[in-house]
């Protein structure tokens, strides 16, 4: 089993819709969780950290479920500019472990 | 804040050439810098972790004599791909963290697209 797993997608979603995807992790001792977005052929950019109580930033909401060992990202009122690959990142010991990403395509 | 600059952004060179990539943290002191490689449609693969003033820690399968890392200051780390071959063609990205542990997010440079002919 991979340490961090994501559905690769692509998720094809109409503009304005709500979309959510999950990321599962195997190390129950993980303490820090992040969502990054990566545009094609560009570097990853931090989208948001994921806190135990969950957190919201505008149209984006991140949740952590420790019991089931997954984090989620929900995007409301999706925009064309949200099209990207979303990377889930979990700390594993001394380093961060990266998921392979979920590709999201927002269609007009 | 937390700006990381990586240079060059694109390199095309002949097989056998050595290529040096620089990674600078512009507005903060980076205790730790990370070097990643990413092949098309694949996830980031950590190559090595470097702490200022000490030897880099390489991941399994990464040749330390081929990928030389120097982290001489809290704002600069360099990766040198020695005697590069076509199979070394990839997207190389550095990141820097303000913390000594993995609880801090990483901030990325723009990446270097390396093409070896």
Explain the overall architecture.
The complex is a heterodimer of chains A (about 110) and B (about 120). Chain A is globular, with a radius of gyration of 13 Å. In chain A, strands 2, 4, 5, 9, 10 and 11 form a 6-stranded mixed sheet that branches. A 5-stranded antiparallel sheet of chain A has the order 1-3-8-7-6, with no helix packed on it. Chain A is built from no helices and 11 strands. Chain A has about 110 residues and is mainly beta. By secondary structure, chain B is mainly β. Chain B has strands at about 5, 10-15, 20-25, 30-40, 45-50, 55-60, 65-75, 75-80, 90-95, 105-110, 110-115. In chain B, the strands form 2 sheets. In chain B, strands 2, 4, 5, 6, 9, 10 and 11 form a 7-stranded mixed sheet that branches. The interface of A and B includes residues 31, 34, 44 and 93 of A.
Query: Rg of chain A to the nearest angstrom?
Result: 13 Å
Largest sheet of chain B: 7 strands, mixed
Shape of chain A: globular
Average pLDDT, all residues of chain B: 89
Structural class of chain B: mainly beta
Mean pLDDT of chain A: 91
Order of helices and strands of chain A: EEEEEEEEEEE
| Continuous helix count of chain B | 0
Largest sheet of chain A: 6 strands, mixed
Oligomer: heterodimer
Radius of gyration of chain B: 13 Å
Tags for this model:
heterodimer; A: mainly beta; five-stranded antiparallel sheet; B: seven-stranded mixed sheet; four-stranded antiparallel sheet
